[in-house]
């Protein structure tokens, strides 16, 4: 019952992730952060089995940090996405596959944003927008209709709020709050939690 979304703008990527930690019919937490910083301009937003997501994200974050320490520079979004995909594919072919779906967002030093959509089978594609979880059933049509290249921050934020409003209105499960992040050439910016006060469509 999770929902993560990423939208690429002119020179940034905006991501939102619901803050629920739930199992079966029980919500255990409503302040869970599903975003993991992999570098100055590289972030991974995950959903899936709670143990798998935490272990996989920490494994990736520590190994990318080790790469930076050994080589003296950080991975670009493209190389980071390929490393994560390769690692996911290797685990898939081992005795401990991870049930993790993720969005990897980043921005290079020249301000070119990148968003990668990856699933638990190791399939990866670079996309202008993407989502995982049950909320994606209600969001992809809205994103396909309203997204356009070169959108400003305010336009992307309005589109994201529209998508969340659709999910709040049509999805039977309540997702009360979302953590918002923006990744650009200056780094990762925490925009706080977004809690829709009312549904307006």
UniProtKB/TrEMBL annotation:
Supply one GO CC term from the record: proteasome complex
Major localization listed first in the record, in broad terms: cytoplasm
Q: Which domain of life is it from?
A: Eukaryota
Q: Does the keyword Cell inner membrane apply?
A: no
Q: Which residues are the signal sequence here?
A: none
Nucleus keyword on record: yes
> What are the protein's UniProt keywords?
Cytoplasm, Nucleus, Proteasome
Localisation per UniProt entry: Cytoplasm; Nucleus
Instruction: Note the subunit structure.
Output: Component of the proteasome complex.
Similarity annotation = Belongs to the peptidase T1B family.
Described by its record, this protein's role is as follows: Component of the proteasome, a multicatalytic proteinase complex which is characterized by its ability to cleave peptides with Arg, Phe, Tyr, Leu, and Glu adjacent to the leaving group at neutral or slightly basic pH. The proteasome has an ATP-dependent proteolytic activity.
Name of this protein? Proteasome subunit beta
Q: Which gene encodes it?
A: LOC124807022
